[in-house]
Amino acid sequence: MNYLLLSLAGLLALPALGQKKHVPARKPVHATPVRPVPVAGPQPILVSLAMLQGKWQSVDDKREFWIVKGTELTMRYVTSGTSTDDDVLRLQVTDTCAATCATLAAHTVAKGDYLAVVDVACSAPLCYSVVDVSAAALTLSYTARGNTLRFRRVKEAVEPKLRLP
């Protein structure tokens, strides 16, 4: 009889067929969160008035010139051999596109990535984003339409050639 009780006790101690042995639950392993590595995006091209001083000729229209003296910008278009069409404007370097002349002064900086062009009456400023600038080349984007303006620095005079009779 003892043998029978021992057998029965042994059977009760064994796990049932098809049942899994009880394994204590593992605690989930939490990986240390990976912080994203900042990717250096394109840095803004900063320009100053000093970098813009001089005469610039349009790469796309050889008769268009921008002449920068101090904060004065003369947009010159040579209409014929003896005449020009000049617009004398004010040029400022800004850190954003100023919507009005009232906000322009607050955004004027020594080096920035925008150029604001205003007329004497200071109507709405025209805003240009600086795409690229070097000693020999200047590329701007007119933000109102997205036009790209490409200029090269010129040393020769841009006065119209006078024809003598």
C-alpha Rg, in Å? 37 Å
The parts where pLDDT drops under 50 for at least 5 residues are none
CATH architectural category of the domain at 49-153: Beta Barrel
Content-based structural category: alpha+beta
Strands, count: 8
Alpha-carbon distance between the two ends: 143 Å
Which topology of the domain at 49-153 does CATH recognise? Lipocalin
What's the rounded overall pLDDT mean? 80
What percent of the residues sit in helical stretches (DSSP H or I)? 10-25%
Number of distinct helices: 3
Biggest beta sheet summary: 8 strands, antiparallel, barrel
Going across the biggest sheet, name each strand in turn. Answer: 1-2-3-4-5-6-7-8
Percentage beta strand = 25-35%
Tell me the name of the CATH class of the domain at 49-153. Answer: Mainly Beta
